[in-house]
Amino acid sequence: MPISTEHPIEYYEWLDQQKFIDTPDKDVRDVVMSELQLFRSMEQREYILFMKWDKLRKIYSEPSRELQERIKNVQDNIWVPKKPEDYLKLQPEVVYIQQQFPIRRVSIWGNESFLSLSNPSNLSLDWTILGDFLSTGDPTASTPGRTLSFLVRDKKTKKYLGILSLASDYLEIKERDTEIGWSREQRGNGKRIQYTAVGKVIVPTQPLGYSYVGGKLLSLLLTSEPVCKIWEEVYGSKLAGITTTSLYGNQKSSTQYDGLKPYWFNLGQSAGASSFKLSSENDNMMREWMKTKYPYDYWMHYVGTKENGMPLMRSARDRGRQFCYKKLNIPSSEYTSNHQRGVYFSKLYEDSYLFLQGKINEKALTTKRFDNSTENLVELWKTKYAAKRVKSLIENNNFSFESSFYSELPSLSWDETKERFL
After folding, report:
1. I need a labelling partner for 109 at 20 to 30 A (CA). Which of 10, 49, 292, 336 fits?
2. Residues 114 and 247: beta-carbon distance below 8 Å
């Protein structure tokens, strides 16, 4: 294999340690195409459920006894009411979970970076378990850049009510940028993107989610003063706004963010042009093929890091997957999904948009758009949203005390999973 001296020395050190599997292009392409055609035949909910099932099978197929006990303890610690009106006794609190310790660095040129050290605490593990088993989405997927995680629990009983996570905002999303009046220059070179975040995880436990519209409580608490304060303390910049997207699209009144003005604004639908992920088995096969055929490109996407420990490429996994699809001569129409998502934005200050456009400085961000104290947001949820939901469910005999948890998923076949959860 010819070696180019223009590549970094770290690449050659890595290359010397590798073993390669030579799989014919046609064999890889046939397997990938077959799975992509399967995914294209699925509805959005089925595809998302498949990816969840595939992930949990890989991680939890043979859990240790200690992990099994921890999963059971977490499930037992989920808040379940004895009477429909028990939500009135709840005192939700937001607890910062340091899954990683971010170490802030600033170069002599003023460029900011963060090195993260992991924190294997019990609450951090509980957050991960809840993320894996509460939702059909993928809350625990790794995210490069800034990330803060929070547990929401009842202050008195310590029972779990849900999980939250803030992360580095999308570099570009048309609906949000149009709403703000944001140019690429302002976001990137003007560094205003560091003053917004994305609500990566906003997931309630059950039955809080179904019987009490707990998703609205979690959505409100993501904008709360404790969350914004911790973001500012950790990263040294005010949080001017938060972006988020719905999991299954944007049908009117069908998501937990709808009806939450002025806390969250519905900005319409995303373009829905992301690439399909593959099952873990086939994704690993395709990556091995990429490593053998295009080792430097593989290293650039999956191995190499900057001085601050961050990946060399933004969205490296997605871009690496698309690189493989193109090299395998798979048409974009085969690997591009049409799964749209609703786009929502929370404007935290009256002058957030002026600030993000670079027209005023950070010190001018003084007037909050709404009272984001935890007490106010919880009271709003109880009186305006939960009370109405409980009344409606009781009148229609649909109130549920059931605590939904996907702990059985790793032991089920795909057909059993579809029958149970679709």
Report:
1. 10
2. no
Query: What's the rounded Cα separation, in Å, for the pair 260 and 241?
Result: 15
pLDDT score, position 287: 96
Q: Which amino acid is at 3?
A: I
| Neighbouring C-beta atoms of residue 365, cutoff 10 Å | 20
- The pLDDT assigned to 111 comes to 53
Q: The pTM is what? A: 0.87
Radius of gyration of the chain (CA): 23
Burial (CB count <10 Å: 0-12, 13-18, 19+), residue 6: exposed
Terminal C-alpha separation, the chain? 49
pLDDT band at 187 (very low <50, low <70, confident <90, very high): confident
Q: Which two tokens stand for residue 27?
A: 């064999």
Place of tokens 């890091």: 305
Q: Which residues face 87 on adjacent strands?
A: none
Hey, what amino acid is at 147?
A: T
C-alpha to C-alpha distance for 217 and 96, rounded to whole angstroms: 17
Task: Convert the pLDDT of each residue in 60-84 to its tens digit.
Answer: 988 999 999 999 999 999 999 999 9
At 4, the pLDDT band (50, 70, 90 cuts) reads: low
Per-residue pLDDT tens over the stretch 80-97: 999 999 999 999 999 999
pLDDT band at 1 (very low <50, low <70, confident <90, very high): very low
Rounded mean pLDDT of the chain?
Answer: 89
